[in-house]
Amino acid sequence: MNDASKSFSGLLTRRAAEIEAVLDRLLSPNCSGEEITRPPKLLAAMRHGVLNGGKRIRPFLVIEAARIFDADMKAALATGAALELIHCYSLIHDDLPAMDDDDLRRGKPTVHIAFDEATAILAGDSLLTLAFDVLARPQSGLDDGRKAALVLGLAQAAGIGGMAGGQILDLDAESSAPDEASIIRLQSMKTGALLRYACEAGAIVGNAAEKERDRLKRFGEIIGLAFQLADDLLDVTSDASQMGKATGKDAARGKGTLVGLNGVDWARNRLDGLVGEACALLESFGDRADVLRQTAIFIARRES
Q: What is the pLDDT of residue 254?
């Protein structure tokens, strides 16, 4: 690992710790606002599904995109935490027997294994709604216009035309043979929508101009494609101990992926191309976007 890689790895670890601290506070036993009580079992399941490590790449993107515009760090952290709550809710539900039926997540029992299916469903539901609570809170430090833009963007990224819609397309792909365009569409929804939102949300927090916001949104779209392609590649080339979850499941289910369609060598070449496209979009930001450039490279070359 060279010095630049070590520096980036250290920053990723520090940001993950900062987000973890915010998430820990959000998931404390203390009620917020008009809440009546926080049932201990439900709270424990939510904490199990959220406070279990992970790179926190989505909030990392929010923070580093916001930093390009010298945004308030507290607002960026809160926005990143809200996005991570959505991501963790989706993982809890994805792991359910009715969906991907996984027993492991980040090397630990999934929520429905550690607790039960009903609790896992309610934990996911509660994380989903808590995310919008966090974005709407007065203490975010953002004006109402930016809060509304963040709430609207996250709702659309997570819903029928984004992550949730992509998930059902992904389930349908197990019983059909989707072509390349169909695979790209479902992946841009299931995985890419939240990564695209992360980059745009950072620009919103930073009060960026519309042109800059659009540029970061497009950057997020491209690294979203790279993230899923790298994930599908790892599903073929890695093992469960390396990934912290079961691997080889896509092929076992006959699920259509770009790796399965075009092969490993094609996927690696395509990842290089996507990194080039993503970095080109950041040229106008100069040195301020160095961390985002490194993030694009990290996403494409990650090993877990």
A: 58
How far, in Å, CA of 187 to CA of 34, rounded?
Answer: 38
Residue 40 structure tokens? 């201990």
| CA pair distance 75, 210, nearest whole angstrom | 19
Domain ranges of the chain: 3-301
**Do residues 206 and 287 make contact, with C-beta atoms less than 8 angstroms apart?**
no
Question: What is the CATH code for 3-301?
Answer: 1.10.600.10
Distance separating alpha carbons of residues 76 and 49, to the nearest angstrom: 22
pTM comes to: 0.92
90 Cβ neighbours under 8 A, 6+ residues apart: 124, 158, 163, 167
Rounded Cα distance between 66 and 81, Å, is: 14
266 phi, psi to nearest 5 deg = -60, -45
Task: Classify residue 272 by its DSSP letter.
Answer: H
Amino acid at 140: S
List pLDDT tens digits, range 132-163. Answer: 999 999 888 899 999 999 999 999 999 999 99
Partner residues linked to 108 by β-bridges: 105
